[in-house]
CPBP family intramembrane metalloprotease
Amino acid sequence: MTYPVTYGPPPVLALRDPMPVEPVAYPQMLRTPRATRGRGVLMIVCFVLSYLLVSTVLQGAAIGWDVYRGRVAVDDLMQMRLSLTPALLVAVNLSNAACIPLSMVLQRAFFGQRGRWLHSVTGRFRWGLLGRGALVVLPFWAAYLAITLYYAPETVKTPSGTYVALLVIVVLTTPFQAAGEEYGARGLITRGAGSWFASPRTALLVGTVLSGGVFTLAHGAGDPWLIGFYFAFAVVLSLVTWRSGGLELAVLLHTANNLVAFGSLVLLQQDTSTVFDRGAGSAGPSVLLPAVILLLSTAALWLWASRAKPQRAYVPEAPPAPALDPASTYVGPWDRPAG
């Protein structure tokens, strides 16, 4: 009588595997034996609600502190006329930075996948890729900064007092703020949606549209120019994440954009009264400049990545060869030991 040899983990263990069982691109990293449509939906909903809770607590505390210190008048607060203060900027940036651990915790809770797999398909943050990519894109954003300052020389002043504090906060915390938005939108939301579909193209498309929609709504824009810019920004960064197999280059582009926007357009001009004004008429064709810079720097990154060839897909580890079990192998009379 023969006994079949079973290869691989038992079916029960396979259902518990938190990693994909076949090669997948970044948007489908949560397409695992554990994946169900309900898990992805609940994870995304929990993320949105958790972010709203964290941001409400931190930003509410900052506004309360500013009112207590006399930096914000109660009448202005009641009419939602807020200026950017150091306390509020720290609260806003920390709220977004909190998306990094929040995304990792929710991914582990719903899919059992360790937080390190949120960085990239390699399971780590590829600092070398980030550094080499920075050499490609920073000239474009330096040109954007120079153009901005050149065409607004009469408003540029040497920052002093509060604006020095704001500038320091921007430099120190904006990279974490930008990274948090990427880990939440291009990371957790995109992958949560990607877990619903077997087709890589459908997963990429739905993940990009859903994360882009949430990203745009989170910025509270009411101006058509800003709505178009935020959604296009999200789509471009989703494609960069898919093309590079991780969040590193998306974080780089997002950080460069935000540093230039806050540093030049707001702080050096010493005008923080319109930072939170994103209603109709608050923007215009001027958003085309950062959009063009984003597209040019992304195109340069795309060409560079085609030569550098960063790992774009997760590849499951090959299971170890099973040991032969004598009880499962038929031994014929010709194979019996003599004696």
About this structure: Strands lie at 24-25, 313-314. DSSP finds eleven helices and two strands in the chain. The radius of gyration is 25 Å.
